[in-house]
Specification:
The structure holds two protein chains of two kinds. Chain A is an alpha+beta fold. Helix content of chain A is about 25%, strand content about 20%. Chain A has two domains: about 35 residues, no CATH class; about 120 residues, Beta-Lactamase (2-Layer Sandwich). Chain A is built from three helices and five strands. Chain A starts with about 40 loop residues before the first helix and ends with a helix. Among the domains of chain B are: about 150 residues, no CATH class; about 60 residues. Chain B is elongated, with a radius of gyration of 37 Å. Classes of the chains: A alpha+beta, B alpha+beta.
Chain lengths: ~160, ~325
């Protein structure tokens, strides 16, 4: 596996951009392209979280589900996305919850119901977007700690270089 | 290519999608835009009111302008710009897809929102970005309608979306609350930039920009050209002096004693103020000419009526009290 993206002769960052801080390199072999986590891949992985019933990526300024998979509460992904947007906006706009420490940011939101867990984790992109990853877990089959850990990795991998 | 005709762009999109066509739906008018369709699926949209993928990625600093330009130079001819950026490690597939999805829905709103606009379908046209996402056209038109309703629920005045953004200079309330995007918009609104200018400048989605602007307008923080005239007059202008005098007032003749409030006792034409003893009779003495606005004001140097004043101090000269009052007034002004 080539440690740098040798195919790129024009990028101004040169070769070091592909190396992570700890020195290991990212695979760029086109044959392994399916492993690159695109949006669909990310949602597939979210559905692989134990107990996952449905997952989506929601734009929380418009309340629109950019991508969805599996089930949604009341079988309505769009209504669920609109509700998701309200919850995230409420948590974000009332700075009470996120201003305890300077530069403290919303990490995730967990809503528990008798039948399930609803987990929301903002996806931080460098370009302008306001997205959250939403996963609906079955209460009995799901494990909150495992799901949070997996979602953190998914949200990071989606945008990390 | 069919001739340009005025249709509902959304209906034309549904038609070409039903026929599984490939090409570009070009909507003219203001702001207009284009929706790119590949075999009946929407792959991209662009509009002059919505920053595209390149603007979003470079304005945020995610990609250097040079990187983007190089990708354009090399990938445009083969319509592989998006794939090249991912293959060369400048973006992850996830980032590219999310960025394209966001930009597509954003531009589609501006292109498809008009109920009727001149629109053409250019069969066979492709976009240089290349197919990155494939969206169901019905989902796009449904979302466009939902967004239009969302804006009208906030503040039903579409002029906010296109007019030059002018923040009001004095907020209408003691306390206002702004979100971070609203602050950014107000700071950059210089009275010349349109919402589209601000979206491109800040690298924000065009719809998100007008959504925040409508919220600002609803909060009364934007100066809208038409609304400005209808707004109540908050600042009361001083009345021009010429009209303040009662037109029916009697003519003042030089031999008249001064009508009521005599502030200055040194008016040369005025006769001597009546003697202090005659003060209680003042009404009959000089009130014959001008009655209505009589104010109970003492003349300079006048004494209180006997029944109110005890032992009055001796008369100290007409102007002394006046001068003291002027001095006090001047001090208060300082």
């Amino acid at each position: 596996m080539t440690p740098t993206h040798s195919g790129c002769d024009w990028c101004p960052y040169g070769r070091q951009r592909m190396a992570h801080g700890d020195g290991h390199a990212v695979e760029v072999n086109p044959a392994l392209r399916s492993d690159v986590p695109g949006v669909d891949h990310c949602l597939q992985e979210a559905m692989a979280i134990p107990g996952a019933v449905g997952a989506s990526i929601v734009d929380y300024t418009t309340g629109f589900p950019v991508a969805t998979t599996g089930a949604a509460p009341n079988d309505d992904h769009e209504a669920a996305a609109a509700g998701t947007a309200d919850v995230v906006q409420a948590a974000n706009s009332r700075s009470l919850f996120v201003s305890a420490i300077p530069h403290d940011l919303l990490e995730d939101l967990i809503i528990t119901t008798a039948g399930g867990y609803h987990l929301l984790r903002p996806v931080q992109t460098d370009f302008d977007s306001r997205l959250v990853l939403y996963v609906w877990l079955d209460r009995v089959l799901g494990n909150l700690a495992v799901a949070r850990h997996r979602m953190q990795k998914l949200a990071d991998d989606l945008v990390a270089t | 290519m069919s001739p340009s005709k005025t249709v509902a762009p959304g209906r034309l999109l549904a038609q070409v999608a039903g026929e599984r066509q490939t090409g570009a739906l070009v909507v003219r008018g203001h702001p207009g835009g284009a929706v790119y369709v590949l075999e009946g699926r929407v792959i991209y949209a662009e509009s002059p009111a919505a920053p595209g993928v390149g603007e979003l990625l470079t304005a945020s600093g995610r990609l250097a302008g040079r990187t983007w330009q190089n990708a354009l130079d090399r990938g445009t001819a083969t319509a592989r710009v998006g794939r090249m950026l991912v293959e060369h490690g400048h973006l992850t597939q996830g980032e590219l897809e999310l960025c394209v999805l966001g930009a597509t829905y954003d531009a589609a709103y501006f292109a498809l929102a008009p109920q009727d606009a001149p629109a053409d379908f250019l069969g066979g046209a492709t976009h240089w970005l290349g197919p990155v996402v494939h969206i169901d056209p019905a989902a796009v038109t449904r979302e466009v309608r939902r967004r239009a309703k969302m804006l009208d629920d906030i503040f039903p005045d579409p002029r906010v979306d296109t007019e030059v953004v002018t923040p009001i200079t004095r907020p209408p309330r003691e306390r206002i609350t702004l979100t971070a995007p609203q602050w950014e918009l107000l700071v950059h609104a210089d009275g010349q930039r349109t919402p589209a200018d601000l979206a491109f400048l800040l690298g924000k989605a065009g719809f998100a920009t007008i959504q925040e602007l409508r919220r600002l307008a609803a909060a009364g923080l934007l100066d809208l050209p038409g609304v400005r005239d209808k707004a109540p007059e908050f600042v009361r202008l001083p009345r021009s002096r010429g009209t303040a005098v009662d037109a029916n007032r009697p003519q003042l003749r030089p031999d008249n004693s001064p009508t009521v409030p005599v502030v200055s006792g040194v008016r040369p034409a005025a006769p001597d103020p009546p003697a202090p003893t005659a003060l209680t009779e003042e009404t009959s003495a000089n009130g014959t000419v001008y009655r209505p606005p009589r104010l109970a004001r003492r003349k300079p140097g006048a004494k209180l009526p006997k029944e109110l004043a005890g032992d009055a101090p001796p008369h100290t000269g007409t102007d002394e009290v006046l001068l003291k009052r002027i001095r006090t007034a001047l001090r208060a002004l300082r």
